[in-house]
Amino acid sequence: MSAIVPALIGMILIAAGYFFYSKFIAEKIYQLDPNFETPAHTLRDDIDFIPTNRIVLWGHHFTAVAGAAPIIGPAIAVIWGWVPAFIWVIGGTIFFAGVHDFGAIWASVRNQGRSVGSLTGDVVSLRARTLFMIVIFFLLMMVNAVFAVSISNAFVATPSSVIPAWSAIVVAVVIGVLIYKVKVPILWPTIIGTIILYAVIYLGDQVPVSLPETFMGLGAAPQWIIILFVYATVASLLPVWLLLQPRDYINGIQLIIGLGLLFGAVFIANPTMVAPMYNTVVPEGTPPLLPLLFVTIACGALSGFHGLVASGTTSKQLNKETDARFVGYLGSSGEGLLALVTIIAVSAGFASLGEWQTVYSEFGGTIGISTFVAGGSQIVQDGTPLSREFAATLLAVMAVLFAGTTMDAGVRLQRYIIQEWGTIYKIPVLQNGYVATFAAVGACLALAFGAGGTSGQGGMEIWPLFGTTNQLLAGLTLLVISVMLVKLKRRYIFTLVPMVFVTTMSFAAAVYQLWDLFTSGSYVLMALDVVVIILATFVILESWSAFTREKKAAAASPG
User: In this structure, which of 177, 224, 438, 507 has its CB flanked by the most CB atoms within 10 Å?
Assistant: First the structure.
């Protein structure tokens, strides 16, 4: 089959979801109010709370939630065939991710910009809030460790991506200063910044940078991991306008260009989907499609991490409540397009089925960013005048920048969680931003090197748990939003049905993984899986109790 067919169908359906379904959700379910004064105004401090142009904020939200996961997850999931991955990405984007991300922003904005974990105390119960925030902390620790590994491996595999990736930080700071301090209109910084980013991609291609093979007993990848966490420590303490916002925004522009390049190359080169539509001969050791598909593809179809970004940083910068649809739903739509083009790249970027089967000879392994870069660069070479080497650098930089922005946001969010704990439980030392940041980064490094040894690859060791925990968190967020809708006497079916589906699949996957970890002797990860299952179970029971209680109260009250 021509790759144009799934590309065209997917693009049309995702666009229809934004223009029609999200409009219905905005007007009839969340009932956005253009006159509502958002926390960006009422709590403005120009550090975390600041009213932001919705296009800039879309760039922040989009790239912060995108990361490398909508590349890694779909690239792995194609091992079951590209059609199941395609269906979940498109359906999940329209009916799950958009409603979830959009709803988390709305819920937080209506509660003084508090995180979804924190507001659970008001919506559900104080006990549920405590348990939910522990689940969130675990997830953020996993996210930061996973993306640190992803970036470090990309730097090692593609040294030409190093200069462009770090240059983007300098470009972002300059753009932040020009927009917020010099008051330069956004157009010219955007144009000039984008040109510089692509110019340094060429420079990176000419001047690759590699760290020493060993330094103080550490290989190149763990050296990069430490450097990345040092950077994330500093970045998480800077005002959002100085680095986080402009970096995410300019990366969002680059992603739009990258997506346009990839989709354009697909329509010009017209490659064939060599991967099977449904793979009946999977490698030995591959887990079953059901329920693992729905936790392998998290970001790109639905992700609990999105709710943390939506209620952690995005809601604090929303200028008008009506901007939530553009920022939240359209942000998830962009991520769905990234997942879609990833499916096409890893299904049509190989010369033959045999070549594809060679790459997909095992589940997981090296499949991920490198597979996306290899397949995507081949399609770009066939459909454009660009060389495969330059295209590979461009795509690798794009993936690294996304992972980097997610890591920036992830460490900042983890700092918020620790500070919220300090406020809730009246522990002044945890309310200090520096202490909270060092505690967050220390936990991430402990996981990276504790689970992975001196390789620092602990993030990838826990990737299966990340997917399950992530989706359980998405279900919990949808349940909290459903409780809020019941309290407001609004239709909750549009959040409750996705919640029931994703929670069921996530629990099934967690149980499957529990047995798999036991039989493989991975007792530490098994213990972590048990903790997550127990915590999530208690939160769901508490939330469901609150849901039924509020439903009865709403039915009994007039009006």
Answer: 224
Distance in angstroms (rounded) separating the CA atoms of residues 69 and 303: 10
Q: Are 228 and 407 in contact (CB under 8 A)?
A: yes
Angle separating helix axes 116-123 and 388-424, nearest 10 degrees: 40
CB-CB contact of 6 with 82 (8 Å): yes
Taking only Cα atoms into account, the Rg of the chain, rounded to an integer number of angstroms, comes to: 22
Q: How far apart are CA 126 and CA 319, in angstroms?
A: 30
CATH of the domain at 94: 1.20.1740.10
* Rounded-to-integer distance, Cα 250 and Cα 247, Å: 5
- CA distances (Å), origin 184, targets 175, 176, 193, 238, 406: 9, 10, 13, 21, 27
Q: Does the predicted TM-score (pTM) go above 0.90? A: no
The string of DSSP letters for 494-515 reads HHHHHHHHHHHHHHHHHHHHHH
- Residue 113, Cβ neighbours under 10 Å: how many? 25
Which residues make Cβ contacts (< 8 Å) with residue 234, sequence separation at least 6?
Answer: none
Tell me, yes or no, whether 558 lies in a domain. no
* Main-chain dihedrals φ then ψ at residue 218, nearest 5 degrees: -110, 140
Confidence bin at 540 (pLDDT 50/70/90): confident
Tell me whether residue 557 is in a domain.
no
Within-domain flag for 317: yes
pLDDT at residue 336 tops 90: yes
Count of residues in the chain: 559
- DSSP letters for 148-189: HHHHHHHHHH-GGGHHHHHHHHHHHHHHHHHHHTS---SHHH
Q: Is 515 exposed, middle or buried (0-12, 13-18, 19+ CB in 10 A)?
A: exposed
Q: 234: which 2 tokens?
A: 């500093």
Assess contact for 495 and 485: CB atoms under 8 A: yes
Q: Which residues, at least 6 apart from 55, have a Cβ–Cβ distance to it below 8 Å?
A: 186, 249
Query: How many domains, in total, are found in the chain?
Result: 1
277: its two tokens: 């539509």
CB count within 10 Å of CB 512 equals: 18
Is the pLDDT assigned to residue 316 strictly greater than 70?
A: yes
Structure tokens at 397: 């930089």
- Reported as half-sphere exposure (CB side, CA atoms, 13 A), residue 103 has a value of 31
Name the strand (E) or helix (H) holding 219: strand 218-219
Centroid of chain to Cα 176: 23
What is the span of the domain harbouring residue 202? 4-552
Contacts of 201 (CB under 8 A, 6+ apart): 164, 390, 393, 394, 397
Per-residue model confidence (pLDDT) at position 266: 95
